[in-house]
Amino acid sequence: MKQYVFTILLTAAVTFVLSWAVWRLSLKYKLYPGIRERDVHKTPTPRLGGIAMFIGVLAAFAVSSQHPYFSIVWAQPQQMYALLGATALIVVIGVLDDLWDLDWMIKLGAQFLAAGVIAWFGQLQIYTLPLGGMTIFSSWASFTLTVFSIVVVMNAVNFIDGLDGLVAGVCLIANAVFFAYSYMVFRDIGSSTYFTLSSLIAAVLIGACIGFLPLNWSPARLFMGDAGALMLGLLMACSAISITGNFDPAMIADNDAFGRSQLLGAFIPILLPVVVVLLPLLDFGLAVVRRMSRGKSPFSPDRKHLHHRMLDMGHTDRDAVLIFYAWTALVSLSVLLMYIGTTLQWPGDYLFGVFYGIVGIAACLVVTLLPSHRRPVSAPAAPSAPGPEPQPDPAPAQEDAR
């Protein structure tokens, strides 16, 4: 565990220092786009935070390659190089889009290319699904399922990037829960090592989010942009695939540590990776259906995402972000508690997780549907006599969120 803590702290420190440097350089050279119609923020803000996060991730992986405890992770260097190469490609495309707004077809093509590199050259694929031991015998079926899974998660995470601290905080919570799960599951099945690719990726992403969040918290001075959001989605998908695609459900089904709930234990390896990104996936699915029903591209931007709807309900920007944090923690911790209940054989096994989920849902619904501080709705300005145009403030104040 000490090695993972060191990895988190190293990634966080490098990401924080570089985020501050990127912010200062972006302001100095005016490397920020104008305000878009769908944006919530009112002051042009740099979007190149993904560069700092990527370098922080690279630093952590570079150190891990020299660490004897992580030698098992680097036993297949081709897989690691494919993962890092695909991540670099996504970051480059994201940076170009953050600066010049690339066509969505170019971005989508790059996403499929990056996912293909990971699945084909890195051989990080979903060979098995923990659904009664079902195995995907066709290599092409496994390849296709893997590529589409990575692309969907990338876009799901990117779609919720609309408020200060939203993506960084949600991914921090999701990866923390997934790290705890991946660490415990290999402990419970009696594995000889707890150092796995899934745990390493989760730890690195925890550190990247911790290091970036201080500059991204409301009022944000720096956004992660598409580069950061797509990178987080890609690595989170790879972390989940590395454990679900190579995890034999029989190891749980035949393990006495799971008491009477072997079947639930076999489902959790695929259930938990989904629920930790449930909100991004929900927002992504709703956006695709909404846009295609109107005859538009599923990637055409609009102002109907879940965080926009939260603002329209009257929530303040910070309240909306905190509510998203609460929902993410609720759904992910509920499944984790169900898993812990099966391994420790608590009274009622997984029912404790179910009870926690029911109580949490009730509490989250109350704070979601009943905003504590409604945003003031500005009345339309009364017509005035023609006069000189007001001059903008030479030093406009930052808005709370975008």
Main β-sheet, in a few words? none
Radius of gyration (Å) = 22 Å
Structural class: mainly alpha
Mean pLDDT, nearest integer?
A: 80
Can you write the helix and strand succession as a string? HHHHHHHHHHHHHH
Strand content: under 5%
Pfam families: Glycos_transf_4
Subcellular location: Cell membrane
Binding site for Mg(2+): 158, 226
Cofactor: Mg(2+)
Short overview:
The chain has 402 residues and is mainly α.
Descriptors for this entry?
402 residues; mainly alpha; 14 helices; 0% strand; disordered C terminus
Topology (elements, then pairings):
Elements lengths: L1 H27 L20 H17 L11 H24 L3 H18 L17 H21 L6 H23 L8 H20 L8 H20 L5 H4 L8 H14 L2 H16 L12 H7 L4 H28 L6 H19 L33
Helix pairs in contact: 1-2, 1-7, 2-3, 2-7, 2-8, 3-4, 3-8, 4-5, 5-8, 5-11, 6-7, 6-8, 6-13, 7-8, 10-13, 13-14
Enzyme class: transferase
Cofactor: Mg(2+)
Membrane topology: Multi-pass membrane protein
